[in-house]
Design goal:
The complex is a heterodimer of chains A (325) and B (744). Chain A contains 16 helices and no strands. Chain A is mostly helical and 325 residues long. Chain A is 70% helix and 0% strand. Chain A has two domains: 89 residues, no CATH class; 217 residues, Orthogonal Bundle (MetI-like fold). With 744 residues, chain B is an alpha+beta fold. Chain B folds into three domains: 69 residues; 218 residues, Dipeptide-binding Protein, domain 1 (Alpha-Beta Complex), CATH 3.90.76; 247 residues, Dipeptide-binding Protein, domain 3 (Roll). In chain B, 33% of the residues lie in helices and 17% in strands. Chain B contains 22 helices and 24 strands. In chain B, the strands form seven sheets. In chain B, strands 11, 14, 15, 16, 19, 20, 21 and 22 form an eight-stranded mixed beta sheet that branches. In chain B, strands 1-10-9-8 form a four-stranded mixed beta sheet, covered by helices on one side. Chain B has a four-stranded antiparallel beta sheet with strand order 4-5-7-6, covered by helices on one side. Chain B is globular. Classes of the chains: A mainly alpha (325), B alpha+beta (744).
Chain lengths: 325, 744
């Protein structure tokens, strides 16, 4: 398994370089370094000289990918792409265009993102699996039927509606929790309650249906029939046998998302005033700060690769027949 | 046997079921009876409820808090409370009046000729080679407590030689335990002027100031050369490098030498760009290991103002607290005649500031911000277009006032016309709307005049700005010297005076002008083809689509086809710099209350095409206007200057290089407990004048935010009832299995 993990990590390097290159090309197709300088310096009294100096100071005065004037290997190394990319592989993201340290910012924003995403993830899995198991337990009954109808209705509603509706009803009309904001330590709990509840409810429809499908597929397998023939109670069949065997597809979907929880949620963070990483990325795009965009895309790709490796490892834990070679 | 089991199970079930129901009822009743007075939805700690704190919101995080770099209004809102430039605007007087802030009086201005003799003929500006501003600051003004000033027992600066070990245990500024302060000196102002030229700081006004402050351009070159020879991130102590244009006379007096006569320079002295920076602060922050933790001057300002920044988490919250060393400033005793009546002079002569803390919470979305304002958790709010009808109504006289719902909450509306203008410009380099030969230029002028009549900005303001704006009659907004009201100020190319009111000229008149321009009924008489014009727009949201549709309809009124070329802002700017646009939309916020700051937008040498730093986006170049501008910009205010301004406005109206657009009007709502508010769109250091009645706020917050508990009870009951059928079915199903086993 160790060999497998090392091999997968090695595969990740060209993927990360590729992702970085694509981000770079896309970003600089839309924004030239001159545009970035103007955005930073303002448009009122900016001179060409000021733009040049700003670019020089931040290393944006070099060619983008290929330096024709340089010699030998420097043709590739004395470029914006190379100089801005190499340090990232040791997780040194440098400074944003406003001079602030990106790593420091990422570290401080990761906690609020996790403070919402983690409870939503854990509570969500528990709620969705419980509801799906209940519907499977009562399959072909009115509970199952109306459960599916409700799920379809819930998944047809935009997540924005849940957020605005939740804020309106729970915070504005009933005055039960703050509408938005974020605190530190225990003070954060009163701000997190609403986003977590809304986060779980807004995904009930889609996730419960998905888990129900997985469980139903398992219910038709022969080992379930055998268990029933042995006279095991339905609850034992469901919780002991079906749930365990359905874990592989559940893990596929769930484990891969665990590392991405750090990246936060854009809409929820914005509406609830949570200072997380989701909004950091969008702010960087709006302010044309390539250093932040590049760092966030890199972290996103890295975490996704980690998620996939974790998924593979978790397979071996739930199914002893699987071996990672 | 099966029946026996069933009976037992039924008994069990009945017992369990009733127990659960009773338990549920007890919980619900318990919660409801526990209903007490505390507020649950307050985003602030309960112990702060009665404190003298102002609560405000901000949407965009400030990028820079270093006064040499900061230029956005959301940044100046903070820096203006912390830093004290030598001058400030009078809080109550209109038009905007400069008064001393840290100085003894207004700067003494002396004009000298090339050989250094004082020029007494101030009106003969050709004789003036330099202007010298002598500024004397008051003694006993002290900086906020800050570790940069802390000294050890030996009297040396405590934190100016930090070791690596020491910086490792520092994560934020408050980790430095020792604090100090010192008196404000003239050299601090001089130091900041030098910083405008610092090679690493990229001040946005360096380009402009280097044209005026003697030696600033050369100073920047010198600093750059020195910086290039030093290792990266080495601190440059600017005290070691003299700047020709700045002279320190004594501890409390300094002089600034300006090229020629530039009367507008005095307004710059009221901006944070010219605030004092102590050299100790810059040296303290330049130490290795601090910038990585965002401990920089750009993050933690050091000033002498009424407030100091004690918490800087721009992703969540920013907190200003009263500077304990701030003293000697009092609430103004004079203002406008109406200020007495509106209670704005009630605090006259009282020491400033009134509020202890100002908390800015980050609120990116309008909906939560608006709702929190209505709940009393923000003391003031702007009005978004989606909540406009809920907040504002128009009286029969067309006056804006708050709705009954707002009145019941004690909310009041304050309005102020911004010193800004949003206009639609014609690129005068374009052959169709600008013209090349004299004949073409005359025809293009008539075309622009026709369009000026057709595009109905009164309607625009009504539809797209909820009436929050004044259709412009020229480039100068109200409140700026040179602006004229009523018939005197009317643009008679576009409007006429009927029954004591300004009325837009008819479409027939516009069509007549269009025909005279060579496009009768929108057809080009030379080619026989319909006239097609191009509007270069930066379309951003779905809302913009309706604006663009409306714009097409306005041109359609005179049978001109308008083609919208939508692009992103970068490409748009690129087009403007290359002079490739035909018709465009832009705006300008005044830097200072002088007409020069608007007229220069149409001054020939400021043309944008081919001169990237120019601000004349229309590339308008009229020699007569240019000549008048050059005279006007150097004149002091007075009837002679007003006459020239009138002349310039007339030229512009006739040439119509812009559709004059409108001047936006800002509407803001304030709770009853928020006092001493007089909207001021020119200066930002107003926090010190504001007052909060915290007791009233606490009472109202409690009244408006009592938790409604029945939904919790209802939710518990619904949850229990919804589980009940499932529970029954589960027991039945399990029972069947058990029975089968027993039978088997």
């Amino acid at each position: 398994m160790l060999n497998y993990i090392i091999r997968r990590i090695c595969y990740a390097i060209p993927i990360l370089i590729g992702v970085n290159l694509i981000t770079f090309v896309l970003f600089f197709m839309v924004n030239t370094p001159d545009d970035m300088a103007r955005m930073h310096l303002g448009v009122k009294y900016v001179t060409d000289d000021a733009i040049e100096k700003w670019k020089q100071d931040r290393g944006y005065d070099k060619p983008l990918i290929y330096n024709q004037t340089a010699e030998g290997f420097s043709k590739l190394t004395q470029t914006i792409f190379f100089e801005k990319s190499v340090a990232m592989f040791v997780f040194d993201f440098g400074q944003a265009d406003d001079g602030r340290d990106i790593s420091h910012e990422i570290k401080s924003r990761m906690v609020p993102s996790l403070a919402i995403a983690l409870p939503v993830f854990l509570l969500g899995i528990w709620v969705y699996i419980s509801l799906a198991l209940m519907m499977v337990f009562f399959r072909m009954t009115y509970i199952d039927f109306w459960g599916v109808v409700l799920c379809v209705a819930l998944m047809s509603i935009s997540s924005l509606f849940y957020i605005i509706g939740g804020q309106f009803l729970i915070s504005k009309i009933w005055h039960l929790v703050p509408i938005s904001g974020y605190g530190t330590g225990l003070d954060a709990s009163k701000f997190l309650l609403l986003p977590v509840v809304i986060g779980v409810i807004s995904s009930i429809g889609a996730n419960t249906r998905w888990y129900r499908t997985i469980f139903l597929e398992e219910m038709n397998k022969e080992y379930v029939r055998t268990a029933r023939a042995k006279g095991l109670p339905e609850s034992t069949v469901l919780f002991k046998h079906v749930l365990k065997n359905a874990l592989i597809p559940i893990l596929t979907g769930a484990v891969v998302t665990i590392p991405l929880l750090f990246l936060g949620s854009l809409i929820a963070e914005s509406f609830f005033g949570i200072p997380g990483l989701g909004s950091y990325t969008i702010e960087a795009i709006n302010s044309q700060d390539f250093a932040i965009v590049r760092a966030m895309v890199f972290i996103g790709s890295f975490l996704y690769i980690i998620g996939l490796i974790l998924t593979d490892i978790s397979y071996t834990l739930v199914d002893p027949r699987i071996r990672l070679m | 046997m099966e029946k026996e089991i069933k009976k037992q199970c039924d008994r069990c079930f009945r017992f369990d079921n009733s127990k659960i129901i009773w338990l549920g009822i007890v919980i619900v009743v318990g919660i409801l009876s526990a209903c007490s007075r505390p507020i649950w939805n307050s985003p602030y700690p309960s112990e702060d409820a009665s404190k003298n704190i102002l609560y405000n919101a901000f949407a965009e995080r400030p990028k820079h808090l270093d006064p040499v770099q900061s230029y956005s209004s959301n940044e100046i809102l903070l820096t203006a409370q912390i830093y004290q430039p030598p001058l400030q605007y009078h809080y109550l007087k209109r038009p905007f009046t400069l008064i001393p802030q840290t100085t003894h009086g207004m700067p003494l201005v002396k004009y000298i000729d090339e050989i250094g003799n004082e020029s007494h003929a101030e009106k003969d500006i050709t004789n003036i080679a330099y202007s010298i501003y002598e500024i004397s600051i008051k003694p006993d003004i002290r900086y906020q407590p800050h570790p940069a000033f802390a000294r050890n027992d030996q009297g040396n600066l405590r934190y100016h030689a930090l070791t690596q070990k020491e910086t490792e245990s520092i994560f934020k500024l408050s980790d430095f335990t020792a604090l100090g302060s010192r008196e404000l000196l003239a050299e601090d102002y001089a130091y900041q002027i030098k910083r405008l030229a610092h090679p690493k700081l990229h001040s946005p006004i360096f380009g402009l100031m280097s044209e005026y402050i003697v030696g600033l351009k050369e100073y920047a070159e010198t600093l750059r050369k020195i910086a290039d020879t030093l290792p990266k991130d080495t601190h440059l102590d600017l005290r070691d490098f003299p700047l020709e244009g700045v002279e320190i006379v004594d501890a409390f007096t300094y002089r600034i030498k300006i090229k020629g006569k530039y009367p507008q320079f005095i307004y710059w002295l009221a901006m944070p760009f010219f605030a004092p920076i102590p050299w100790e602060a810059e040296r303290f922050y330049s130490q290795p290991g601090l910038a990585e933790k965002n401990i920089t001057l750009d993050w933690y300002p050091v000033g002498t103002g009424a407030y100091m920044l004690v918490e800087n988490d721009p992703n969540r919250i920013m907190v200003l607290e009263r500077n304990p060393y701030f003293q000697g400033e009092y609430y103004p005793a004079d203002g406008m005649p109406e200020d007495e009546e509106s209670g704005l002079l009630a605090d006259a002569g009282k020491p400033l500031p009134f509020i202890d803390r100002v908390i800015f919470s980050r609120e990116k979305e309008n909906i939560p911000r608006w709702n929190k304002f209505l709940q009393g958790y923000y003391d003031a709010s702007g009005i978004g277009s989606d909540s406009f009808d809920q907040a504002v109504q128009l009286t029969s006289h067309g006056e804006a006032t708050v709705t009954e719902e707002m009145q019941q909450q004690g909310i009041r509306l304050e309005t102020a016309v911004a010193a800004s203008t949003y206009y639609m410009g014609f690129n005068m380099l374009d052959p169709v709307v600008g013209g090349r030969t004299d004949q073409e230029k005359a025809a293009a002028r008539k075309l622009r005049q026709a369009i000026s009549i057709a595009v109905d900005y009164e309607e625009y303001v009504s539809i797209f700005a909820n009436g929050r704006g004044i259709p412009a009659q020229g480039p100068i907004p109200p409140g700026i010297m040179g602006y004229r009201e009523g018939k005197e100020g009317m643009n008679d190319i576009v409007h006429q005076w009927i029954d004591g009111r300004i009325k837009r000229r008819s479409i027939e008149e516009a069509k007549k002008l269009l025909a005279e321009a060579g496009y009768p009924d929108g057809i080009d008489i030379k080619t026989g083809a319909p006239l097609v014009l191009y509007f270069d727009a930066t379309s951003r949201s779905a809302d913009d689509k309706s604006i663009l549709d409306w714009m097409r309809k306005q041109f359609k009124k005179i049978n001109i086809q308008l083609v919208v070329r939508s692009t992103d802002y970068n490409r748009f700017q690129d087009k403007m710099r290359k002079g490739n646009a035909q018709i465009f939309e832009w705006g300008w916020n005044a830097d200072y209350p002088d007409p020069e700051n608007f007229f220069f937008l149409l001054y020939g040498p400021q043309s944008k095409a081919g001169n990237h730093s120019g601000n004349n986006a229309a590339n308008y170049d009229n020699p007569e206007y240019n000549q008048l501008f050059e005279r006007m910009e150097k004149m002091d205010n007075g009837p002679e200057r007003q006459a020239i301004i009138d002349q310039m406005v007339e030229i512009l109206r006739y040439d119509a290089p812009w559709l004059w657009g409108y001047h936006p009007k800002d509407y803001a709502l304030y709770h009853a407990w928020f006092q001493n508010v007089k909207p001021n769109k020119m200066s930002y250091n107003n926090m010190k004048y504001l007052r909060i009645n915290a007791e009233l706020r606490e009472r109202k917050q409690s009244e408006w935010n009592q938790p409604v508990l029945w939904p919790i009870g209802l939710a518990v009951i619904i949850l229990m009832l919804s589980l009940l059928p499932g529970f029954i079915a589960y027991r039945q199903k399990e029972r069947k299995t058990e029975a089968k086993q027993l039978v088997g």
